[in-house]
Automatic annotation (TrEMBL), chain A:
It is an enzyme of class 2 (transferase). It comes from Kwoniella dendrophila CBS 6074. Coiled coil: none annotated. Its EC number is 2.3.2.23. Belongs to the ubiquitin-conjugating enzyme family. Gene3D superfamilies: Ubiquitin Conjugating Enzyme. PROSITE patterns: UBC_1 (PS00183), UBC_2 (PS50127). Keywords: ATP-binding, Nucleotide-binding, Transferase, Ubl conjugation pathway. GO terms for molecular function: ATP binding; ubiquitin conjugating enzyme activity. This is E2 ubiquitin-conjugating enzyme. It comes from the Eukaryota.
From TrEMBL, chain B:
The keyword Nucleus applies. Residues 401-413 have a biased composition (Acidic residues). GO terms for biological process: DNA repair. This is DNA repair protein RAD5. Residues 939-983 form the RING-type domain.
Length: 149, 1214
């Protein structure tokens, strides 16, 4: 394992010392590129009150390539599939090396507050969301209660 | 010894005592002898050697020979007179006890004699030595008689050689008693006294050494072998009834010669035979073999040519032939009997295994030929010529011829290289040779020597003085001479016993040893140690321990040879301090003596010290000698260039102009040598050449310069005339054992200084992969090399050198994208070509072109420009890669600002991205910042301070590396590269503009430094095309230099590279960065070098970098003013790099030393590092620049280097 780039060290330090509201991230002991993350559901979203666990991994090429992030907690969201994978542009082709772990997590938090069923990852959820939004939101609340509290 | 329990004794006919330990025994012997004589048996031995005769007196079949132990012998030698006194305690019992006691005594004596013995092997045979029982074997014979009752199993037989009458008679008379008594003598007492054998010399006083000799001489006839070779392999045996048979040819073949020359005697008995004999019927015999005294004497005789022995009478060739026969015969005999050495050089064993290739005539010849040390003869000492020495005949001519012949053999012989493991072993060899060195006494240098020596340096002085004096006792060496094997005489077994050997150990009496040299055929009773008469040696202390200083102290210790040089050194005032104890007074004495230089110096006396060193060190020697010496005591002269004059006249100068030390370079020496060779025989030759003077002392500094024995410079060194020869080098063995040879040859250390010898005993075994060949090396080193390392501790457990710590940091870097591309391109091409060549089987015939490709790769790793400059053939691709950057647009900040103010679109519009609106406010801010800002902004991508700041079209800034990497990543993913910060784009490499600022504080001093165009004193910012072909290493270097200067504003650093073209590029970059530098390379004159070093040593208020080419400055220089070392590339040979680092990490360094090596991941460098460790073939081929001999090996190496034999996975460290 090559030495940790200075950038990762710096980011980690800052994350630990000064984490964005509702977000925590800490590297695992055995692999400093591997983070345990929690994101609080944004207010006035169906996920409010829930604490969602995620894992984040910084690949060798980081920051040239984006981090890999995945939900560990079950969540009912059109852009997040059953496996916890996230559909978010900055985690894909819109990645820029100027982005950071912090910004990525904030974006994810924002995604919770603004589901985008037009660019779905979980097709059934997106379908439901479009056809019967309130039922879908209720479902999301239910899951949040059930899995994220 | 303990085995000899009384019961056995009684049962077996006799011989408990292998050697007579005490006086009393001796006496017994006498008695026994006389008693024994009674028995009338005919002697088996044809040869009338004294020894034989002596032996014959022995009573029982057990020969007296057993009685003599070599060790014992020696001891007894001294006691002889006492021994002679006959005391009558014939009791056997005693004998056994005595024998038990004996060994210890003997051992003691032995060791004493050993340590003190410089004496060559075989030098002394105790007067009471008769011979020794070697062993027995079973063989066949044919009957020559017919009839019944001639013999029966168990009956004794006597062996005879059909010979000229007189001899036969002689033999008979003397040997008669041989057999007869076997049975009868159970008396054992008497027998036991077999020792009687010993007694003989004494009892039969007639048999003095002299008389024996005489007899032998008379015996001379052994020439027969040559005379009638055909007849000669007949050995008859008979018993007391007259029955006659003949020994089978097989055994007779090798026994004949030995019998003829009296080396062995035989006894035997019949094991089995037909009840009724007919001619030709087979008889099974048990034959016992004894080594006769003569076997051991012969050598001696041979050595001192003064005696009128048979050997001497012979012509050279005959002698050699005889020696060879003897050797072969003994070898056959030993193997027939199954005698195994107790101790032997592993090397020998290996060679035997390999079919004894070495034991052939040629090698023998070499042995016999090995040159006599020219300056060695100190007759006082070696009256007993050693085995080794005697053989040194004449030869220097032969010597050199032989060398030429084999000349080309060594340079390309890859397999001789030491691999990693072996190199480690070398370390342990050194270590072994070092044992006890810390107990050397310390000698204080004379007062004229101004420096204070450290204790270990004083020890070196002791050792060196001793070496010069020829006193080797300073350091005990107890290693068995590598050419010799140690054997022990056996106890003779009772006849009834089965012949089968039970357990070797039971029969070997450790204190009764003898020694055999399977190469020369010599036998010896004394412990053969080496005999080196060479004055001088190898001072191989690790680098930076002050070898120069130690040598200087030695020079002070003994400036002139006036006294000490003369062979019979009576009053060696100078050297005495070295010898034993009284150091202080002695030294003073010598000082005083020397302080009065009025003593007229005879012209022809060897005097003066010649120092040969690399040209870069010449002035350092000169300076340091000056600094170390009290004024007027030692003057040195640089023998260089036009300053050369007439050497004799120069050295003859007196008073103020007196010159004591001549310093010259290897190059000068070589040219001088050529001149001398060419002219010396011409009538017009006037002399005055270095070669016309005999120096008192010759010192080769950095002596590994002559490691190639065929090089002109090496030959030039060999031919120098000087009494005392010293080689200074931190790496006596650079990468193969042969390196050592050259040094030994220079030192004239015999016999190792003879190439074929060295080759036979070191090189070839080594080639055969016997790591134990190193034993020989160890042995050699022990005698003539002093090596201490920085990590060694003195007797009080303190480090002998207290150097500040050294930290080595290996920086494994990643290529930048463009570099990687260029490199990949080159590498692929090289690989392809290699594979193609290999497939066609032409790889090795295109050796040089492959090496050239490799060279390119290695350069490319340093800096792509190194390769691109020399683009050949299809380098378009790389050129294309470069295209983007070749433009020479440069703008300076003011222009840009002006452009912007004037409403011009940013330059990026040219790329068709003009529609991207640029945030003008931001741009303005950036430009302003550029002009003012003193601190470096943080890069968004790597979170570090920007390094090689570049400006994007959108006026965002990044490290060049980061953005280039990003653009590349995007290309790989087929997406447009946009600015990481604002997503504007796409951007291309060609859009980038580098921002270069010169720090105000930097005020370049170096002449070469190009001052900034901007004299107004503001920060000078230049915006230009990005130099994409920057080198990763170079940038890393600059970055590092930058960071260390923040810690230490006056830091001095060394930067090594093997490519001067790379140094050029480093220069440019450093200049641009405003870092002051100096340069030291091979193109500089001696004067320039000296100035550079001096300049570098000056105290200045800013960091200073010295750029050094590895080859020119890797060696010898003392640069302790620096404490940072940067190794920019990987050299094939780690030792060289080590040398380079030790320019800094050496005596005088008082700071922590930091070494940084730069390696690029996934390139040839990694593989070179690997090879560097394993020191395999190709490496050296490239080093030597010659073609490889061992094509198979290099081919494999090529494959390794091209990564064809392994996956070049990234999980490896490099």
């Amino acid at each position: 394992m090559s030495a940790l780039p200075k950038r990762i060290l710096k980011e980690t330090e800052r994350l630990m010392a000064d984490s964005p509201p509702g977000i925590s991230a800490a590297p695992k002991d055995d692999n400093l590129r591997h983070f345990d993350v929690t994101v609080a559901g944004p207010e006035s979203s169906p996920y409010e009150g829930g604490i969602f666990k995620l894992e984040l991994f910084l690949p060798e090429e980081y920051p040239m390539n984006p981090p890999k992030v995945r939900f560990l907690t079950k969540i009912y969201h059109p852009n997040i599939d059953k496996l916890g994978r996230i559909c978010l542009d900055i985690l894909k082709d819109k990645w820029s090396p100027a982005l950071q772990i912090r910004t990525v997590l904030l974006s994810i938090q924002a995604l919770l507050g603004a589901p985008n069923p037009d660019d779905p990852l979980a097709n059934d959820v997106a379908q439901n969301w479009k056809e019967n939004q309130s039922a879908a939101i209720e479902q999301a609340r239910e899951w949040t209660r059930q899995y994220a509290q | 010894m303990e085995d000899d329990s009384p019961p056995i004794t009684s049962k077996r006919s006799s011989p408990d005592l292998f050697f007579p330990v005490s006086d009393s025994e001796e006496e017994e012997d006498v008695v026994a002898a006389s008693g024994t004589l009674a028995g009338p048996s005919s002697s088996a031995i044809a040869t009338p050697s004294t020894s034989t005769s002596t032996r014959s007196r022995t009573i029982n079949g057990k020969q007296s020979q057993k009685s003599d132990g070599d060790g014992v012998i020696e001891i007894f030698g001294s006691q002889n007179s006492d021994d002679i006194i006959p005391i009558d305690n014939d009791t056997k019992p005693f004998s056994s006890t005595a024998s038990i006691a004996g060994p210890s005594k003997i051992k003691r004596n032995l060791s004493r004699s050993r340590s003190r013995s410089r004496t060559p092997p075989a030098s002394s045979i105790p007067a009471n030595f008769e011979g020794g029982y070697l062993g027995e074997f079973v063989c066949e014979g044919w009957s020559l008689s017919k009839g019944k009752g001639y013999c029966s199993p168990g009956s004794k037989v006597i062996f005879e050689r059909p010979k000229p009458k007189n001899q036969d008679d002689d033999n008979k008379s003397t040997n008669t008693p041989l057999k007869s008594q076997d049975r009868s003598g159970p008396a054992r007492l008497v027998n036991g006294k077999v020792v009687g054998a010993k007694a003989k010399p004494i009892g039969g006083k007639q048999v003095t050494l002299g008389s024996m000799m005489g007899k032998k001489a008379a015996t001379a006839p052994p020439k027969k072998p040559t005379a009638k070779p055909v007849v000669d392999s007949i050995i008859r045996f008979r018993n007391d009834r007259g029955f006659v048979g003949r020994l089978s040819v097989q055994e007779a073949g090798f026994l004949t010669h030995l019998l003829d020359t009296g080396i062995i005697t035989l006894t035997g008995h019949v094991i089995d035979c037909p009840p009724s004999l007919s001619t030709g019927s087979t008889i099974l015999l048990n034959v016992k073999v004894f080594l006769a005294r003569k076997a051991f004497e012969k050598v001696e005789t041979d050595g001192r040519k003064e005696e009128g022995t048979f050997w001497q009478e012979q012509k050279e060739t005959t002698e050699e032939e005889a020696m060879r026969k003897r050797k072969d015969a003994l070898g056959a005999l030993f193997s027939r009997i199954g005698v195994k050495p107790l101790r032997s050089n592993a090397l020998l064993l290996a060679q035997k295994k390999n079919g004894a290739a070495v034991i052939n005539e040629t090698s023998l010849q070499h042995f016999a030929d090995s040159p006599k040390p020219k300056r060695s003869p100190s007759p006082s000492k070696g009256s007993n010529a050693s085995a080794g020495e005697k053989s040194k005949g004449k030869i220097s001519a032969v010597n050199s011829d032989g060398e030429e012949d084999e000349g080309d053999e060594d340079s390309g012989d890859e397999a001789e290289k030491l691999d990693d493991k072996q190199l480690n072993e070398i370390d342990s060899i050194y270590r072994k040779a070092q044992q006890g060195d810390n107990r050397l006494e310390e000698t204080d240098p004379p007062d004229t020597f101004l420096y204070t020596l450290r204790p270990y340096q004083k020890q070196a002085l002791t050792w060196m003085s001793a070496r010069e004096k020829g006193d080797e006792s300073i350091r005990d060496n107890q290693t068995l001479h590598p050419l010799w094997e140690e054997y022990a005489f056996k106890k003779e077994q009772a006849e009834g016993q089965p012949i089968e050997i039970e357990d070797e150990d039971d029969f070997v009496d450790p204190s009764r040893k003898f020694y055999w040299n399977p190469y020369s055929g010599e036998l010896s009773l004394t412990f053969p140690t080496s005999n080196t008469r060479a004055k001088g040696g190898i001072l191989a202390d690790a680098m930076g321990m002050g070898k120069t200083c130690m040598m200087a102290s030695l020079i002070h210790n003994n400036v002139d040879a006036d006294i000490s040089s003369t062979p019979p050194p009576t009053n060696e005032t100078d050297e005495e301090p070295a010898s034993k104890r009284p150091k202080f007074k002695q030294v003073t004495l010598s000082n005083q003596w020397r302080a009065i230089p009025t003593v007229p110096k005879p012209v022809n006396v060897p005097r003066g010290t010649l120092v040969v060193c690399p040209v870069s060190l010449a002035s350092q020697w000169h300076d340091e000698l000056g600094k170390m010496s009290e004024k007027g005591t030692i003057t040195s002269f640089m023998w260089y260039g036009n300053d050369r004059t007439d050497i004799e006249r120069l050295l003859a100068q007196e008073g103020k102009k007196k010159v004591d030390v001549i310093i010259t370079s290897y190059g000068t020496l070589a040219s001088e040598y050529q001149k001398w060779k060419k002219n010396k025989d011409k009538p017009t030759y006037e002399g005055g050449n270095l070669y016309d003077h005999e120096f008192l002392r010759i010192v080769l500094d950095e002596a590994h310069n002559i490691k190639n024995r065929t090089a002109l410079v090496s030959k030039a060194c060999y031919d120098l005339k000087g009494q005392r020869r010293w080689a200074l080098t931190g790496t006596p063995i650079v990468n193969r054992l042969d390196d050592l040879y050259s040094l030994l040859h220079f030192l004239r250390l015999e016999p190792w200084g003879h190439y074929s010898f060295f080759r036979s005993f070191v090189t070839i075994p080594f080639l055969n992969q016997d790591p134990k060949a190193l034993n020989v090396v160890q042995y050699i080193l022990e005698s003539c090399l002093l090596r201490r390392e920085k990590t060694m501790r003195d007797k009080d457990g303190k480090l002998i050198v207290d150097l500040p710590p050294k930290t080595v940091d290996i920086q494994v870097l990643d290529f930048s994208r463009p570099e990687r591309q260029i490199y990949k391109h080159l590498e692929d091409r090289a690989k392809r070509r290699f594979i193609q060549l290999d497939a066609e089987g032409r790889a090795m015939s295109n050796y040089t072109s492959i090496l050239a490709m490799l060279m390119k790769l290695r350069q490319c790793v340093d800096h792509p420009l190194l390769v691109l400059g020399k683009a050949t053939e299809d380098d378009e691709t790389t050129e294309k890669l470069l295209d983007a950057e070749t433009g020479d647009e440069k703008g300076n900040l003011k222009d840009l600002i002006a452009m912007y103010a004037g409403g011009a679109k940013s330059y990026s519009t040219s790329n068709g991205n003009g529609d991207d609106e640029i945030d003008h406010a931001y741009a303005a801010k950036v430009l302003k910042e550029l002009g003012e800002q003193e601190t470096t902004p943080i890069c968004d991508i790597c979170s570090n301070e920007m390094f090689d700041e570049v400006l994007l079209p959108c006026y965002h800034r990044c490290c060049q590396d980061c953005i280039v990497d990003w653009i590349g990543t995007c290309e790989d993913q087929n997406k447009p590269a946009v600015c990481p910060s604002c997503s504007k784009g796409p951007i291309k490499l060609s859009d980038l503009r580098s921002i270069q600022r010169k720090r105000k504080r930097v005020n370049p001093i170096t002449g070469k430094h190009i001052d900034g165009s901007n004299g107004e004193g503001e920060t000078d910012v230049t915006i230009g095309k990005v130099d994409l072909v920057q080198s990763t290493k170079l940038r890393a270097l600059v970055r590092k230099l930058d960071s260390i200067r923040q810690e230490d504003p006056q830091v001095k650093s060394l930067v090594f590279s093997q490519f001067t073209s790379f140094l050029d590029l480093i220069e440019t970059t450093l200049t641009r960065e405003g870092i002051r530098w100096l340069r030291f390379d091979g193109s500089m004159s001696q004067a320039q070098r000296a100035t550079t070093i001096e300049e570098f040593g000056k105290k200045i208020n800013e960091p200073l970098v010295l750029l050094i080419s590895l080859k020119a400055g890797g060696v010898g220089l003392n640069l302790t003013m620096a404490n940072h070392v940067f190794m920019m590339d990987t050299w094939w040979n780690e030792a060289i790099e080590q040398q380079a680092i030790d320019r800094v990490h050496r005596l005088g360094q008082d700071k922590h030393v930091y070494v940084t090596r730069y390696i690029i991941k996934g390139t040839v460098e990694k593989r070179i590092m690997k090879i560097q460790r394993s020191k395999t073939a190709l490496v050296n081929a490239s080093l030597a620049g010659g073609a490889a001999k061992d094509k198979g090996a290099s081919l494999a190496d090529f494959k390794k280097i091209f990564g064809l034999d392994e996956d070049d996975s990234d999980d490896e460290v490099y």
